[in-house]
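Protocol step 4 of 5: obtain the predicted structure for the target chain.
Materials: sequence only (see below). No template structures provided, no constraints applied. The aim of this step is simply to have a reference model before the mutagenesis design in step 5. Sequence pasted as it appears in the construct record:
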Amino acid sequence: MKGFKYIIVAGVVAGIFLTPGCSQLAMLGGKKNNKTTPETQTVAVIRATQQVRTDRPAEKSSYTGGGYSHVEELDFSAWKYDDHTLNIAEPEVYDSLLGRWYEQNVVSSYDEFFKQFIDIDMDGPLATDVPDSVYRARMRLIVSPISLGYNDIIKRYIVSYTTRNAGLVGRILGLSQFYFPMIEEELARHGLPLELRMLPVIESALNPTAVSRAGATGLWQFMLATGKSYGLEVTSMVDDRRDPVKATEAACRYMADLYRMYGDWTLAIAAYNCGPGNVNKALKRAGDDAKTFWDIYPYLPSETRGYVPSFVAVNYAYTFHKQHGIRFVEPPLPISTDTVSVNRLMHLEQVSSTLDIPIEAVRALNPQYKEDIIPAVDRTYALRLPQHDVSRYISHEQEILAKDTIYLAKYINQPAELVKKEITASTIRYTVKSGDNLGAIARRHGVTVAQIVKWNGFKNANVTIRPGQKIEIQTVR
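Step 4 output (structure tokens):
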């Protein structure tokens, strides 16, 4: 997107969602000293990035009413963000601290996220003293083209998100400060309801590198075929499903298509989750009078039955988080960014080492480059950098390019045609058949078992595969 700038979290989101109860790196403070303890290193990093937030307002008290206790809240709207970042003297300190922060704050299991956030207990007791009349009144305040509604199923999700999972919601809302401006701009450009910004929350917890068990990837959890059909490049080196900007643009076009298909947003949202085929079958089983998600609810896959209620509930939690004492939890070091064009093969370490930008920050801004390599052998690619460093990149471009002999020797020493084939290898999804094993699948496609293990994130070659399971295999296109 030409000239587009947005705020994004500076760090590789190595897992799916942030666990409650952990301290906030961005909230630490203190006097500078020369000791190299983790705490003083953290303070040094934060002091070296004063642009993250300045003129922080004092805490203010507010009483939410309705039987809730007194809570302390922050007026985040008064925070100021400068337009440059990452003036860090020691990148290795940043990498170490950032890695430690995510290790403490991230749970790396998509299945655990799904269990906690989507597949909630529908039969247990509800721990809330908020009457239904209050929930209904608040839901009516969310004016949207999408019929959000309120019922006992939605209530269970609302209670879950505002009580047991309130810490998780707070951390997701913190990430939203970086992703939502970009997402909302795309939604508005396509004429779509802004409430759809919550879809990547329930899809991936706003994690651009999230991968589901079925292989759906990125903020918007595109399956391989769907992503490619909407113009997302997926090769051995690049996965545009992990590019927040490109994936969001594709998701907007997909959602617009689904709405044109059904004329109802709840059906379109359900179809985004389980596919139009499953929604069409549910509509047939429900009869001619079925017009909305709730009309076909009993006939949908179990995951999708929880999907729309989750979407409604997370819109509620986002809108009324203050009434439930939920605070935005800040991930470390937000940075504003811009892009430069790259027209030759480049390793991210070439940029990181030359400009003294932490490699984790460069990776976080460019999650689509799976192997840290920009495969610009036959076309131009975008490299996203902290905005403050764009001019420095331009000034040092020749020095950066000259480091290809250090970081790309493997490719430089190969014939150009072989390099192009390796760089532009495409990904297919193979459906496991009865009697298959990894060895047979590898031989059939001219690859190795070790490669299949790596491409699919298997722990080892002894993993159990089942008929019907999808396996990613990279082939030359």
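Step 4 remarks: The two ends are 26 Å apart (CA to CA). The chain is about 45% helix and 10% strand.
Proceed to step 5.
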